């Protein structure tokens, strides 16, 4: 078995993005929740493999499949522009478990206004973390801009949820004798 060639383009997705199957495979790999369970050492190993490969240094004994796995692990945990490790719940691999939990709670706890407000706040806070974590790294954003966006989104979501909640209230049953 020879050394891995340096002509594998790990800047692009592994699968053909012009096909549905290629896009689906890429999506499911990027959002794989199992990546959340990887240790810091595993993330660093993947980072080293990817950065070394991009610099023209092949990790001895690595296969093409291992290179691609390292690329997707690296991409799942580190910001593409800044190289910073992304906070756990801001990673794309957290989307499915986090959104399922939050959506389940919003659907379960809808009857009382305080719980509607709370779960809308949790949802918008999660969205803000994901959006911030996956922002373009070459465009600086001020704390004021972040705060304005967060307050606007949260206020809009809570107002919409409470407005829709008020529209779904059923009328009270009639009191008094029923016509027989």
UniProtKB/TrEMBL annotation:
<comment type="similarity">
    <text>Belongs to the sideroflexin family.</text>
</comment>
<dbReference type="GO" id="GO:0005743">
    <property type="term" value="C:mitochondrial inner membrane"/>
</dbReference>
<keyword id="KW-0813">Transport</keyword>
<keyword id="KW-0029">Amino-acid transport</keyword>
<dbReference type="GO" id="GO:0015075">
    <property type="term" value="F:monoatomic ion transmembrane transporter activity"/>
</dbReference>
<comment type="function">
    <text>Mitochondrial serine transporter that mediates transport of serine into mitochondria, an important step of the one-carbon metabolism pathway. Mitochondrial serine is converted to glycine and formate, which then exits to the cytosol where it is used to generate the charged folates that serve as one-carbon donors.</text>
</comment>
<keyword id="KW-0496">Mitochondrion</keyword>
<protein>
    <recommendedName>
        <fullName>Sideroflexin-3</fullName>
    </recommendedName>
</protein>
<dbReference type="GO" id="GO:0140300">
    <property type="term" value="P:serine import into mitochondrion"/>
</dbReference>
<keyword id="KW-0472">Membrane</keyword>
<keyword id="KW-1133">Transmembrane helix</keyword>
<dbReference type="Pfam" id="PF03820">
    <property type="entry name" value="SFXNs"/>
</dbReference>
<keyword id="KW-0554">One-carbon metabolism</keyword>
<dbReference type="GO" id="GO:0006730">
    <property type="term" value="P:one-carbon metabolic process"/>
</dbReference>
<keyword id="KW-0812">Transmembrane</keyword>
<dbReference type="InterPro" id="IPR004686">
    <property type="entry name" value="Mtc"/>
</dbReference>
């Amino acid at each position: 078995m020879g050394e891995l060639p340096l002509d594998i383009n790990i800047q692009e997705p592994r699968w053909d993005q012009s096909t549905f199957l290629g896009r689906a495979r890429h999506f499911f790999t990027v959002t794989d929740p199992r990546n959340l369970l990887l240790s810091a050492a595993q993330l660093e190993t993947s980072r080293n493999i990817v950065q070394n490969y991009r610099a023209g240094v092949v990790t001895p004994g690595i296969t093409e499949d291992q290179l691609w796995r390292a690329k997707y692990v690296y991409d799942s945990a580190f910001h593409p522009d800044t190289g910073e490790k992304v906070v756990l719940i801001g990673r794309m691999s957290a989307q499915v478990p986090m959104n399922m939990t939050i959506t389940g709670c919003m659907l379960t706890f809808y009857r009382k206004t305080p719980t509607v407000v709370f779960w809308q706040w949790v949802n918008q806070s999660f969205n803000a973390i994901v959006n911030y974590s996956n922002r373009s790294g070459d465009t600086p954003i001020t704390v004021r801009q972040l705060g304005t966006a967060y307050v606007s989104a949260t206020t809009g979501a809570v107002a919409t949820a409470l407005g829709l909640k008020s529209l779904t209230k059923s009328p009270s049953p009639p009191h008094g004798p029923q016509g027989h």
